[in-house]
Amino acid sequence: MTINTTRFGPIEISSEDILNFAEGLLGFNDLEKFVLLDDPNDEIFAWLQSCDEASIAFPVLEPELFEDNFQLSLTKSDLQSLKTDSEKNLRSFCIITVPEDPARMTANLKAPVVVNLDNRHARQCVLQNNKLEIREPIFSKLQQRVVAHNPSSIKSQVSDWGVAVTLKEPRKPDPEL
Q1: Is 177 within the bounds of a domain?
Q2: Quick check: 19 and 37 in contact, CB under 8 A?
Q3: Predicted confidence band of residue 36 (pLDDT cuts 50, 70, 90)
Q4: Model's pTM, two decimal places?
């Protein structure tokens, strides 16, 4: 099947690539089907792309990239929504906000996107830990990570199961990022 995206153009995916958000995302309750896209030209971000709305895509990162002690602590309701009884085989991603000044980018640690890798059910879970921030500054942490490690290793988790984007022509920069 083909989905349309404003960032990458038409992308070919299979039904097994679709992440099912029964409750949508916060603020986007009517959008239930997303796919995780891995842009080979971007060494850091993956994109959580709506399958139904071409203009809706969120840059995402694994929280472990910038928060060493990040731990999921899901409620019974979260686990039920993900159709699992344990946190085993779950993967989490934080939605990133990149303002005009990238040095001020933030991650939503308080409400990560959690995906059950076994069945592709997903949920944006609001964690009960009051120490987690909705707008956690991450630029300097990412900079340190890139300097200390090979940048190609940053997205290793995504490339294991995300959809690789094949661009037919060079992408034009997004003026909003």
Answers
A1: no
A2: no
A3: very high
A4: 0.85
